[in-house]
Design a protein that fits this description.
- The protein is an alpha/beta fold.
- The chain has two domains: 157 residues, Quinone Oxidoreductase, Chain A, domain 1 (Alpha-Beta Complex); 126 residues, NAD(P)-binding Rossmann-like Domain (Rossmann fold), CATH 3.40.50.720.
- The protein has ten helices and 15 strands.
- Helix 3 crosses helix 4.
- 49% of the residues are buried.
- This is NADPH:quinone reductase-like Zn-dependent oxidoreductase.
Length: 311
């Protein structure tokens, strides 16, 4: 099968297209013939070696941890899914990812793709939406009426976090550049702060929850807008606990753990059209396609999801 792998840490030139053996299912697994996958910041951070202490993979590595496709093979002990099912998932974080024509996935992590979604739309859902879910609900348990600030709302996690927060009944504020302001209002944001013209910490106060997708100065400034007893979840960098305590807030770093029950709850929201995936960019499964997709992701200015179209 065709796959794009890395054999060393480094730049985009490390992404090499190769022909390798198709995987076989271990106990509890299925093989998905992929129609699409997606790019997430963890992909290029791992490729560059930034996360090698946290995730010490052995080379060669197939990056990518979103899958959408059709089940091609099932292990004998898998009973909830069968060959031909349309499925999507965020697989376990291993060195055998999804930049490939086929991938092995633990069956308990799968959900059926709703009929109203294409494979390309479905591929943009698992990692980002489950990340938003675990920040909003597992870490913070946001409630109707809560004031929620979501940084970088036009990104992959941001677009889904806005929609999930609105489904919950929260009041959603988000930050974006000028050309994305109207787009984020169309997703349901109650207030969009144009960071090119406004400072969010001058515009806001008494916020219940902040989703920090950027880290650094943005994370530090976010404490000023939180009310006493507020909460901040970061997916960019672990917050300093002394700083959080000084501001009287709960702060923590959220590292996504795939959960099949959450994936299936997300599928139901998609089926009911309460949330929708945002496909912003598409590239082919090829050496140059993956390199170009990484380059775009590294700018931090992609709108919605970057999809790898394996079809």
């Amino acid at each position: 099968m065709k796959a794009v792998r890395i054999h060393n840490y480094g730049g985009q030139e490390q992404l090499i297209e190769e022909n390798i053996e198709k995987p076989r299912p271990a106990a509890g697994q299925v093989i998905v013939k992929q129609h699409a996958t997606s790019i997430n910041p963890i992909d290029w951070k791992l490729r560059a070696g930034y996360l090698q202490d946290m995730v010490p993979f052995e080379f060669p590595v197939i990056l990518g941890w979103d899958t959408a496709g059709i089940i091609d093979e099932v292990a004998d002990d898998v009973t909830d899914f069968e060959i031909g099912d349309r499925v999507f998932a965020r697989p376990e974080l291993t060195n055998q990812g999804t930049y490939a024509e086929y991938t092995a996935v633990d069956a308990h992590l799968l959900a059926h793709i709703p009929e109203n979604l294409t494979f390309q739309e479905a591929a943009g859902v698992p990692l980002t939406t489950m990340t938003a879910w675990q920040c909003l609900y597992d870490f913070a348990d946001i409630q109707p009426g809560d004031k929620v600030l979501i940084h970088a709302g036009a990104g992959g996690v941001g677009t889904m976090a806005i929609q999930l927060a609105k489904v919950t009944g929260a009041k959603v504020v988000t930050t974006a550049s000028t050309h994305n302001v109207e787009f984020l209002y169309s997703l349901g944001a109650d207030k969009v702060i144009d960071y090119k013209k406004q400072d969010f910490d001058d515009e806001l106060e008494d916020v219940d929850f902040v989703l920090d997708t950027l880290g650094g100065e943005i994370q530090e400034r976010s404490y000023k807008v939180l009310k006493n007893g507020g909460q901040l979840a970061s997916i960019a960098a672990p917050p300093e606990q002394e700083q959080a305590e000084a501001h009287g807030v709960k702060a923590g770093f959220v590292w996504l753990e795939p959960v099949g029950e959450q994936m299936r709850a997300i599928a139901k929201l998609l089926e009911d059209e309460k949330i929708k995936p945002i496909v912003g960019h598409q590239y082919p499964l090829s050496e140059q396609g993956i390199r170009d997709a990484h380059a775009l992701s590294e700018t931090h200015h992609a709108k919605g999801k970057i999809i790898i179209d394996i079809d």
